[in-house]
């Protein structure tokens, strides 16, 4: 058979249509590989630290942006078990500018500090209702900001107003982290260095998943998604809990673990599950999938109704029912934005601790500040400074 391969290949290439089809497939494969490599290279740059010498070589202007302080070395540091964490893993790097022939290389492409009004609302609501907790907003990768007000207009001024709004709370801290240093000395250090995470089809989402479990392993405390609004204090709620999203799955948008003992053991189990079951082609497998699998094993059942009914079987780990954090399921996300459903939605969430507005589905749904929507009413009451700084639309 092997001896006949050259003959088979020659006959195949002799056929004009087959030859064109073959060459076309090869060309598409090459283009796809090049585009994937370019995207991954650009994406990874968001998380790679730039050395001071590189900055000097670029001969930046006097008003060069400053880099956020690193969470691992800057005071105040997170107080284990008494801190609330948000993670921002988006990439806000401007598009590359090509240099003309004979010109020096293009300017350094900064990953600039940006927050949407809704992200600011989540942060503010946590800070407002939990004044005795420090609220840390951790930006994955080197993140830069302009000290003082930005001289540019438009969206830059809006970002600055929102940042000023959340920093008016003394318990809010903005920090950056380096993925590799942050993972150093933890069970996921070697796994991260192997690079599987950066081969994900949902890179930014999966880095967010990775960091929530790593942060809870490092510090314990409370992790929150950026698309929530906290409606009341959670300071006195004992640690070690998450919330049910459905009858079959727990969610990873609100999670609390103690920094030591039982809570730390669960965090360690989550990191091991993340590594061993990581699937870069599955959006949800590495986020809610992790905490669901770990708690199912802990409780000895896959039936969430049983977990809710028999609290003892989960050994002290608490499962909140859907009303606590996910009273409005993702399929009904529009209820937050429809004026005719205002009273119904407010009544449905009257006992909730947190509401989750499902940004993946709702991010394009703008609401006019002052309009009668459930989300608008939450924001007006629970993140008033961000709501006021948002401008015309929230």
TrEMBL record:
Keywords: Glycosyltransferase, Golgi apparatus, Membrane, Transferase, Transmembrane, Transmembrane helix. The chain crosses the membrane at residues 20-39. The keyword Transmembrane applies. It is found in: Golgi apparatus membrane. GO terms for biological process: glycosphingolipid biosynthetic process. The keyword Magnesium does not apply. GO terms for cellular component: Golgi membrane. It holds the Pfam family Gb3_synth. Its main location: Golgi. One of its GO terms (molecular function) is alpha-1,4-N-acetylgalactosaminyltransferase activity. Residues 260-390 form the Alpha 1,4-glycosyltransferase domain. It is a single-pass type II membrane protein. It comes from the Eukaryota. PANTHER family: ALPHA1,4-GALACTOSYLTRANSFERASE 1-RELATED, LACTOSYLCERAMIDE 4-ALPHA-GALACTOSYLTRANSFERASE ALPHA- 1,4-GALACTOSYLTRANSFERASE. Belongs to the glycosyltransferase 32 family. This is Alpha 1,4-glycosyltransferase domain-containing protein. It comes from Drosophila rubida.
